Amino acid sequence: MNVVADPSLYRASSSMAVCPVLSAQPTRALVDEKLQIVARNLRPRQEVTLYSIHHTEDKDCWEAYGHYISDEHGSVSVTEDASTGGTYTGVEPMGLLWSMRPIPGSRHGLRLRKKDIMSPMVVNISIFSGHMTQGFSEKDALATVVTERWYLAPGVQRVDVREQGVKGTFFIPPGPGPFPAVLDMWGGGGGLVEYRAALLASHGFVTMALEYLSADEHRTHDIGTEYFEKSYQLLHSHPQVCPGRVAVLGLSFGAAVTFTLAAYSKTAQSHPMRPLMGHVFQPRCCVCISGTHVYPFNKPSSELQDRMNRNNAKAHLDENNHLVAKYTILPIPTEPELKVHVGQIKCPLMIVVGQDDQNWAAVESAEDIEQMMERSGNGHLLTVLSYPGAGHLIEPPYTPHVRFSNFITQHNKQKVLMLWGGQTKPHADAQEDSWNKILLFLHTHLHQDTPPAARL
Fold first, then answer.
1. Which residues contact 111 (CB under 8 A, 6 or more apart)?
2. Whether 140 is catalytic
3. Strand locations in 56-95, DSSP E?
């Protein structure tokens, strides 16, 4: 018996066979985990555009795209194939994330920062036929996949801290503990910033995100060394924290605070300013990102603020009306009393700087710190990571780079466009490399045994 198939079935089968398939694995991951993005069932040597878009909590949209040509089998893999154009070029597995930028017509001076760390960053990844540069929302994609990028691993607890006048957030890893800990401080933008602390906790550290500058002008001016003493002790005394295994990490102004805590810790040599610190700090190690030592935070806060206000007169606007602030601390002072006495640091110290930092003279500061520590005999404790083409905002990996963004100055609460510096590709490389080395540094000095890598 002969069976004649319906020709429409062949057409349907053929149509299904060539339907493009797009995958991104893992679909749920920590923000510092790499994605494997693969497109299949394309035509051989077909020109396509891979496109990513993220809708922020502030209702802004960020996008990135790369141009690819499928291989003879009709496949594209971002881990093997090079983008020939778009917001990034070359073989860049994470280019669809770190090269993101606001879509055309967006508000000026945006910076992508996660506010609610209890929810993921949702990134839609699509593939389009042809090499496109615009009009993505007006054209149908060949295929789309939805991914979730998390700062918070499953089981990490978030606990508000409102104790003894201290404002912050504890992030506690899952498991019986106790764990090593990190006191995490951001910079002069103020407010309570939690996403880096959440990610550190996802890697096995009890982390305290500390707010020490806020929109409340009076509260900001009242904060001095006693505030940091209380914050450190609250973290150190937490029942889930290993005694004596606490690190301090700071970026920008937070790094200035960290330098001070490291230099005037309990293990430091005698110094006239040391009594102000209350003899309570004994960090196991410290990490300072894009910081300087020319603002010793063990001075009375009013004296420090007056000096900073005088130095702010050195800032200037560039041809794009962006505020260039790096010259406010140049030249690096030669008077010892105007700098943190880094020669007293007795714990391992990692400094991370971008060589195109336009906000603070972090490179010059690192060079002076290195010389001071060598003269004092503690240079062996110092590790400096210096990255060509990187700017001031060295964040966890795959965070989109912004060369400038809106900023409210602390001294006069004025809104400006702050120039941070950096070029997109080298800045992205610096973020990925430095984050991995920071984690290794913390694990080395806070853990007896290196724990497994964090995963969702």
1. 393, 402, 405, 406
2. no
3. 61-69, 76-77
Judge whether 392 counts as a catalytic residue.
yes
Indicate the SS3 state at residue 449.
Answer: coil
pTM of the model: 0.90
Query: Which of 202, 252, 290, 365 is an active site residue?
Result: 252
Both tokens of 454, joined, read 């964090």
Residue 183's nearest CA partner among 287, 296, 297 is 287
Helix (H, G, I), strand (E, B) or coil at 455: coil
Measure CA 427 to chain center: 11
Query: What is the spatial distance between Cα 46 and Cα 142, in angstroms, rounded to a whole number?
Result: 12
Share of the chain above pLDDT 70, in %: 87
207-219 residue pLDDT tens: 999 998 875 554 4
Q: What is the pLDDT of residue 281?
A: 67
Please give the span between the terminal C-alpha atoms of the chain, in angstroms, as a whole number: 57
Read off the pLDDT band of 245 (50, 70, 90): very high
Cα–Cα distance measured from residue 422 to residue 428, given in angstroms and rounded to the nearest whole number: 9
**pLDDT by residue (tens digit) across 88-141?**
999 999 999 999 999 999 999 999 999 999 999 999 999 999 999 999 999 999
Annotation marks residue 252 as catalytic: yes
Instruction: Say if residue 198's pLDDT is above 80.
Output: yes
pLDDT level of residue 284 (50, 70, 90 thresholds)? very high
Q: Report d(CA 158, CA 177) in Å as an integer.
A: 15
Residue 11 burial (C-beta neighbours within 10 Å; 0-12, 13-18, 19+)? exposed
Structure tokens at 278: 């209350």
Catalytic residue among 81, 184, 356, 357: 357
274 within 8 A of 264, measured Cβ to Cβ = yes
Cα distance between residue 64 and residue 176, in whole Å: 41
Q: Which residues contact 73 (CB under 8 A, 6 or more apart)?
A: 44
Q: Are strands 404-408 and 415-419 parallel, antiparallel or unpaired?
A: antiparallel
Of 10-19, 42-51, 65-74, the poorest mean pLDDT is in 10-19
Residue of 231, 220, 246, 212 whose CA lies nearest to 277? 231
What is the Cα–Cα distance from 112 to 62, expressed in whole angstroms? 8
Which is catalytic among the residues 293, 392, 401, 427?
392
Stated length of the chain: 456
